[in-house]
Every structure is written in C-alpha cells, then in structure tokens.
UniProtKB/TrEMBL annotation:
Domain HTH araC/xylS-type: 187-286
Keyword Transcription regulation: yes
Pfam families listed in its UniProt record: Cupin_2, HTH_18
This protein's record includes keyword Plastid: no
Protein name as catalogued: AraC family transcriptional regulator
Keywords for the protein's UniProt record, in alphabetical order: DNA-binding, Transcription, Transcription regulation
PANTHER family cross-referenced by the UniProt entry: ARAC-FAMILY TRANSCRIPTIONAL REGULATOR, TRANSCRIPTIONAL REGULATOR MTLR
Gene3D superfamilies with a match to the protein in the record: Homeodomain-like, Jelly Rolls
GO molecular function: DNA-binding transcription factor activity; sequence-specific DNA binding
Amino acid sequence: MLIVVLLMKVLPFKIPKTHNIGLIYQEDKEQFFYDKFHQHEEIQLCVIVKGEGTLIVGDTVNKYSSGDVLVIGGNLPHVFKSDASVIKESFMISLFFTKESFGKSFFQLDDFKELIPFFEKSISGFKLLNNKKKVIRILLSLQKSSNLNRFIGLLRVLKILVDSDTIELASFIYPKRYTDNEGKRMRDVMDFTINNFEKNIDLYEIAEKANMTPNAFCRYFKQRTNKTYFTFLNELRVENACKLLVSDKSLPISSIAYKSGFNNLSNFNRKFKEVKGISPSIFRHKNI
C-alpha cells in the first residue's frame, strides 16, 4: 500500500506550499515517477528504493537505479524518466526542504556550521557514493515516524552526507530562475526530446516545439544549458545505448546504435567515445 503523508501537486517548475510544516515527506510508489521536466524551490533529498532509468539534472544526463541516494538543489530543473522496459514498479522516498524551512536564521546558527558544505554542493545536485546503507536505513525508518522524528532523521542524514564522498549531478546551473512561461517552454522541449530521442529530430522540428525560429532556439538552449541542443540529444542517446549494452549482451552494437537514435554505426562510435571516453565495445566489456 502506498503511504503518502503529504501529497504535493507538481506544477510546471513549481511545488505549492501546503500545511504549516517545514519538512515535507513524500513517497512516490507507482509504475513510473513523475516524468515532466520541472523544478521546485525545495531541496530534494531522496532514495530510490526501487526502479531505474534516466535522470536529467540541469544540463546533464545521468542514470539512476535502486539504492541510489540523490540530492537535487532548489530550483534545479530535473526529471526522472523511468525505464519501462525493465521495471514494473518505481518507489522513491523524498524529503523536501529549503535552507529557510525552519526559520530564516536556523541553518545560519553556529550549531550548523558543519552543514555548510551540504548546501553548497546541493546547488548543482549530487549523488552519494558511500555510506548509502546508513542513509537508506534512516530514510526507510521515517515512513511511520512523527514529524519531529523526521526532522531529527533529516539532521542525522545531513551529517552523514557532509562526511561522505559524492559526485556532482549537473555541470552547469542557469543563474536565473525560470518563469512559469519559460519553464513550460523548456519542459516541452525536454519532454519531447526524452520521448522521441530514438527518432530523427531536426532543428526545425524542435524549434517549433519551443515556438521559436531555429536560430533563436539555438541561442536560447545554449544560454540555459551551456551546450548545444544536439550535444544534449547525443548525450541522452548515448546514455540509452549504455543501458542496452549492459542489459542485453546478445544485442549487436549496430542494433543498439539504431535503437538509440543514431543513423549509422561510425557516427555512433564517434559520439559514444566523445561522451564516455571509450568505445561501446570496451564499455560493454568493462560492464560484463
């Protein structure tokens, strides 16, 4: 049974405040996670209890799987794209809060100086590399906890995160907050790309999704992600290829290339090496 202590209606790039509490606890337990590119002012600290897929954070394509502990910064655009081919259920536990959720000066007290690195790293988001079992155990224990015990659990987790190794999720952060209209435009672009990356997408088609001319769209996308649209598209395609290389060892690399949206093998090999630093065959061999 899904237990949702507080259900948040996710709107384009905005999560409205509900109830008079500072820490929001949420469970997402369904076949797919919310799959629209969005942002919210709260920091999201989450554990993937079950599921796997592609995680886009800001300008960067990542993958996620069961057991991952992730932190996504406030107002950092992101989307979890569940892999429908390998999962029947996705389950994520999240804590949402801001630096001012418990009072404007709360985390500025000397008592919390040790947590400064957490808030600095959360700006670009990060993935936990060690001590994951400790964090997961605490977050799972919050399912039936009181609001006070959840707050205490949050502080315990933050201390662990500060003392642990992490890896950055986004390499570039757009310095301005998206307006609702601008957020919808970028969401439409990202949603279309995520759902159609294996097909041929030309500049005119994607620019039309943004209601812009091709030249204007190129400037718009580069300014907000620090990369061209087709660089981002190739990264998304390569990440899908990585999944196929590992999950189906019998599938020829040429078939994986076409299934991932590349129209010829040589272009696939070149782009794969640009993104991953190694060839598809070596990547597969290393992940046997």
